[in-house]
Amino acid sequence: MIGYQLDLILLRGRLPLTIQLAMTGYNRQHIRWKAPMVGMYKLNKDAALDMRQLCVGMGLAIRDHAGNVMATSAQRIDASFTPQLAEAIAILRGLQFAIETGLFPILVESDALEVVNLVNSASEISADFGLVVCDIKDL
């Protein structure tokens, strides 16, 4: 298994936010969920594209440091997005969900390297999902 994790910290407004980048190879059977520190929550999210039906599915799960599921959400969006835009929207929806449920500070785990790099970048964003990244930064 090829795997590594990189912790990137972003503090914005009232919501301390850590985005953790989890990149793994093809052998996913040995990947284990890693708990956040005590007093924090962790958002795991995923987005799936269905190009035939022109829709995106998003799943969100927020757990505490003991691994207890605190909140979940699933959503279908009838639209056709790029994978990066779908992942950025999933992060945004997950953070909004965490704020609505009062489950923060929160650690966000994502496998979308380009999105994580843009969220943590201070430079101007010109990507097609740049407005969503700006919304994430404004939380």
Automatic annotation (TrEMBL):
Top-level division of the source organism's lineage: Eukaryota
Sequence ranges assigned to domain RNase H type-1 in this UniProt record: 45-138
Gene3D superfamilies associated with the record: Ribonuclease H-like superfamily/Ribonuclease H (3.30.420.10)
GO MF term list: nucleic acid binding; RNA-DNA hybrid ribonuclease activity
Classification via Pfam families: RVT_3
PANTHER family: BNAC02G40300D PROTEIN, POLYNUCLEOTIDYL TRANSFERASE, RIBONUCLEASE H-LIKE SUPERFAMILY PROTEIN
Protein's name according to its UniProt entry: RNase H type-1 domain-containing protein
